[in-house]
Amino acid sequence: MSRYKPYPNYKPSGVEWLGDVPEHWEVKPIKRAFQIIGGSTPKAGDPTFWDGDLVWVTPADLSKLESKWIDDSGRKITLKGLASCGSHLVPPGAIILSTRAPIGSMAIASKQLCTNQGCKSLIPSRNANTDYFAYYLSACVEQLSVRGKGTTFLELSGDELGAFEGIAPPPSEQSAIAAFLDRETSRIDALVEKKRRFIELLREKRQALITAAVTGKLDVRTGKPYPKYKPSGVEWLGDVPEHWEVK
Fold first, then answer.
1. CA nearest 37: which of 117, 111, 140, 133?
2. Model confidence over 154-211: pLDDT tens digits?
């Protein structure tokens, strides 16, 4: 982080956990930047409500995602099912946030969809950049979680979410921050994937080395195969060094 410089001037945010923020940024409740909509579930016993074309997002769908976008769900509902339960269609560009089991999984809708009651949809106002606020909320998952209430499982209410403190830079700066994070996180993700593949190859090499040493394909004293081999009589084992015993 040393190559990135802070802003020249800061001011107290007025929010204890947040500390100081750049002087020209605004701190305001999330409900002033987004319209917050809840979801619902059609009755399970009516087949006319289910297996339609409407994407119906649940916290489980969000928790499986590796992308920041969502356009599909494990189950879908019909327009009749949507009308029956009072859920709402939300437009592309809305942030879909799981508000129970767990709190904090999220994605941006890339098509019109609806959700169950375990999610809240945040529809942005004209001056709210969805990408920026999705990054902001993802950095605040711990703070969102402590606002959850419940005994069986924690749930973040619409009122608590709406009152949650949001940091709003000017719109042009929101766009610049989102573009910067898209670029830099993509670069880091690519490096992580490269390292992951390298680790997989090392694990494969490790296992191959063990197999070669214990089955006689490699003489560990020379680093080469043994000079002479014989059939082991075991189909999966193949040939073994001539002086080895199979029993």
1. 117
2. 999 999 999 999 999 999 999 999 999 999 999 999 999 999 999 999 999 999 999 9
- For residue 153, what are the contacts with CB-CB under 8 A and spacing of at least 6? 100, 101
Q: Write out the two tokens for 201.
A: 């190859």
Q: How far apart are CA 169 and CA 153, in angstroms?
A: 34
Phi, psi of 132 (to 5 degrees): -60, -50
From 3.40.630.30, 3.90.220.20, 3.40.30.10, 3.30.450.40, which CATH number describes the 10-169 domain? 3.90.220.20
- The reported pTM is 0.85
Q: In 3D, which of 108, 106, 111 has the Cα closest to residue 156?
A: 106
pLDDT digits (tens, 9 = 90+) for 97-153: 999 989 999 999 999 999 999 999 999 998 999 999 999 999 999 999 999 998 888
